[in-house]
Design a protein that fits this description.
The chain is mainly β and 811 residues long. The protein is built from 8 helices and 52 strands.
């Protein structure tokens, strides 16, 4: 079937195709001729193979304008063509063994030379000849052979052959073996010409003499120069069981102490076997000559040969042990060796002394008499000689001793050597130690526990023998004051305490009416409310008694101190006035600056701290006219009166104590200024009266009634005297700038000085420091002053005047 070229090519291209086909048909007969060349392998790059232009009849000058191609039938470009010279040269080394790996006798490299314009094709075959460029080599450079030492001479062992890529005379020619007394080689050639090597045993082997033979096999080729390759042949001689186990001694002697711990190593046997592998593995065992008793005491490890203790070694039972031991290897036909081990036992102090306790008293009274027997103790030791000599002692110092029995030397009496006290030591653990005289000494101990029973030998004890308890006045009845607890070191009923107050009367009042104590816990309570101004302290005893038989007791002194509270309001005693009334005073308008106008005196029956009084103006008509000393209550003029000042001045003074909170009292003083001067009485008589602070209400009533009666009697006597005598006329005293004339409408005057002020004021200060209070009061016309002494701290109220004693002094 013919194909139309127009189906695949356009018109112009179709003409070119037809032209190419025509040219190929014309040159094809010349392309069928082959040009052959021969070169050696491994020629250097650039080496010229042939001059193709000369061999093919081509002009070198015309090749430069024509296109020349080399078509080589390999995957590498080994050759190239020089257009200028027409030479075919080498561009890469050629390896015959690589190009022709099948090792044929002839090796060719085929290529086509294509020259265009006109197109010509030349077939070229390049023969590559072999050179000796490869040395023989073994596929394994190390060969290991296992040969039994029982192998007979002449036995053969195959060895691997060497290979050489070269061909012809360059391939392997022969083999050589290193020098050996036991081995040689034999070379055999196969049908294909390959040489095989066998290792031949020439002399019997002995593994114990030489276990490994190192041989070198060399393969040599026939090239020039000669090349060779080597392989290491390792011949390992396999053992046969031809040597029995051997001990270095026939008899071993070992010394051991009795009672050696189980597992103690007596000795380790080490038999040797010159064989190897299982033929050298040794198993140890007792022979039938070893007694069962010995085997019960000692154990033999079959693998290691260790002889250890597995039972009790007792010198008293056996003084030496003898063991017959064999060592057997594990070969197919086992061989064995024997030895004997003798163990000599060294005697030791291996028996502990023993303690026997008889007739022991574990519980005794703490007052047990000295010398009483607590227990009977016996000691013993199974050893003999020095190991059997024993002694008994108490481990640490205690109030007990051991007395040996004269009849039974190994027996002792444990007796009390000192008085016992349960409160110091409630029980004793008596450790008895028995020790023998062995080397090293052995000892044992036993503990006897002795409990002491309590007796009532300790009286209750208070932490303090004197207790001061501070109680705030105005306390609530039933309030807890303190807990007075005693301690009794005894036990049980001997330490159960009962508390009570020892009866004591104060002012016909029993302490049990004022205080109460809880008999079980010693809590002290107040049964009434206390007033500091009436009762300031109490002193009594509390007793604690235990419940023992007979009972013991002790007491503590209790001092109750009543602490003051600010519960009393200050009382203004001077200037005195009726309850709610105003004190009126008259002073001359000519009074100088700094003159004493009045003095306010207040009393507070509380304690010193709460009774400190301070004075201040609560209200004053003219604050620039009068001053008030806050501590002594003196009211003085700050300037002289002027015509602008009103005739009447109203002063309200407050007296405040130092308590918390502070209490106070007030007094209102109405001052009137006058132009005339009242007659001054300069010859006044002061009669100071001592006062005491009484705590008994009855005594106050007696003193009050007596004072009133005495005042009434004096008043009657003065009245009679004035009526019987005619008063003497007296000259009016000139006005004095330092005097203040005061007239009272009240019954009792305060301590303000009326005439001769400097004298009275100094007298007042001096007497008040002594605990006295000097008070003047006016008397009927023609008489002098009445001087009163008022006790400080009598608790006067604003309306009470019965406590003041009055003394009238006549003309």
């Amino acid at each position: 079937m013919a194909l139309d070229p127009g189906l695949f090519f356009p018109g112009d291209e179709r003409m070119k195709v037809w032209a190419t086909v025509f040219v190929l048909c014309a040159v094809w007969p010349s392309a069928l001729s082959v040009t052959r060349y021969s070169i050696a392998e491994e020629m250097e790059r650039g080496s010229v193979v042939a001059n193709l232009a000369a061999d093919l009849g081509l002009e070198p000058g015309g090749l430069a304008q024509r296109e020349v191609k080399l078509d080589i039938f390999t995957n590498k470009k080994y050759l190239d063509f020089n257009k200028k010279t027409g030479e075919l040269y080498i561009v890469e080394k050629m390896d015959r063994e690589y190009l022709c790996p099948a090792k044929p006798t002839s090796c060719f490299l085929k290529l086509d030379v294509i020259i265009e314009s006109p197109l010509r094709i030349f077939n070229i075959e390049l023969g590559i000849t072999d050179i000796n460029d490869n040395a023989p080599h073994f596929r394994r450079d190390r060969v290991e052979l296992d040969v039994s030492e029982s192998a007979t001479p002449g036995e053969r062992f195959s060895l691997p052959n060497a290979v050489d890529p070269d061909v012809g005379v360059n391939t392997i020619k022969t083999y050589k073996l290193s020098v050996s007394e036991q081995f040689t080689i034999e070379i055999q050639t196969g049908s294909d010409g390959t040489q095989y090597v066998d290792l031949v045993l020439t002399k019997s082997l002995d593994r114990e003499e030489k276990a490994v033979h190192n041989l070198i096999l060399t393969a040599v080729d026939g090239g020039v120069p000669v090349r060779s390759g080597t392989a290491n042949i390792i011949v390992r001689v396999q053992d046969t069981n031809d040597n029995p186990p051997r001990f270095d001694k026939q008899t071993y002697t070992v010394n051991m102490t009795e009672n050696s711990p189980i597992g103690t190593l007596a000795m380790k046997l080490d038999a040797t076997d010159l064989d190897e592998g299982v033929n050298s593995e040794i198993v140890y065992s007792f022979t039938l000559y070893t007694s069962e008793k010995t085997q019960d005491v000692f154990a033999l490890n079959p693998n290691t040969g260790e002889i250890t203790v597995k039972g009790t070694i007792d010198y008293e039972d056996m003084k030496f042990y003898e063991m017959h031991i064999e060592a057997r290897d594990k070969g197919i036909h086992p061989l064995l060796g024997q030895c004997k081990v003798v163990v000599h036992v060294t005697d030791m102090n291996d028996n502990y002394p023993d303690i026997t306790i008889q007739s022991v008293k574990n519980t005794v009274n703490e007052n047990i008499p000295v010398g009483s027997v607590i227990a009977l103790v016996g000691i013993s030791d199974r050893d003999s000689g020095d190991n059997g000599k024993v002694s008994l002692s108490i481990h640490q110092p205690m109030p007990f001793i051991l007395n040996s029995s004269s009849e039974r030397p190994m027996h002792y009496n444990l007796i009390v050597s000192e008085p016992l006290d349960r409160e110091i030591v409630p029980e004793y653990d008596i450790i008895l130690v028995v020790t023998d005289a062995g080397t090293p000494p052995l000892s044992d101990n036993e503990t006897i526990t002795v409990h002491l029973l309590d007796i009532n030998d300790n009286a209750p004890q208070f932490p303090q023998s004197f207790n001061t308890i501070r109680v705030m006045e105005n306390n609530a009845p039933g309030a807890l004051l303190s807990s007075l607890t005693a301690f009794d070191p005894d036990l049980h009923e001997n330490q159960y305490l009962v508390y009570f107050i020892l009866e004591k009367e104060i002012a016909n009042t029993s302490m049990s009416m004022l205080f109460s104590i809880n008999p079980e816990n010693g809590n002290l309570y107040a049964l009434k409310t206390f007033d500091y101004e009436i009762e300031k302290e109490f002193l009594f005893h509390i007793e604690a008694r235990d419940s023992g038989s007979p009972p013991l007791s002790s007491n503590v002194t209790v001092h109750i101190v009543i602490v003051d509270q600010n519960d009393n309001v200050p009382v203004i005693v001077s200037p005195w006035r009726a309850h709610g009334s105003v004190v009126e005073e008259k002073i001359p308008r000519s009074t100088d600056k700094g003159s004493l106008v009045a003095k306010v005196i207040a009393l507070d029956t509380d304690s010193v701290h709460n009774s400190r009084i301070t004075y201040q103006f609560l209200q004053v008509t003219d604050a620039t006219l009068f001053s008030l000393d806050q501590y002594n209550g003196e009211i003085r003029t700050m300037r002289m009166f002027s015509y602008r000042d009103p005739r009447h001045q109203r002063l309200i003074v407050v007296a405040k104590d130092n308590g918390e909170p502070a209490l106070s009292a007030t007094v209102t003083i109405k001052l009137s200024t006058v132009e005339t001067v009242v007659k001054a009485y300069s010859d006044m008589t002061e009669v100071p009266l001592e006062y005491d602070i009484f705590s008994d209400l009855n005594l106050y009533l007696v003193i009050g009634l007596g004072s009133v009666s005495f005042l009434l009697l004096i008043t009657i006597l003065v009245t009679i005297v004035l009526k019987c005598q005619k008063p003497k006329p007296s000259k009016a005293a000139p006005p004095c700038r330092n005097s203040v004339i005061s007239e009272r409408n009240s019954t009792i005057a305060d301590s303000t000085l009326v005439s001769n002020d400097a004298y009275w004021y100094s007298l007042f200060l001096a007497e008040t420091r002594k605990g006295k209070m000097v008070v003047r009061q006016p008397v009927p016309k023609g008489s002098r002053y009445i001087v009163s002494s008022i006790p400080r701290g009598t608790g006067l109220t604003d309306t009470s005047d019965s406590a003041a004693s009055t003394l009238q002094v006549g003309n």
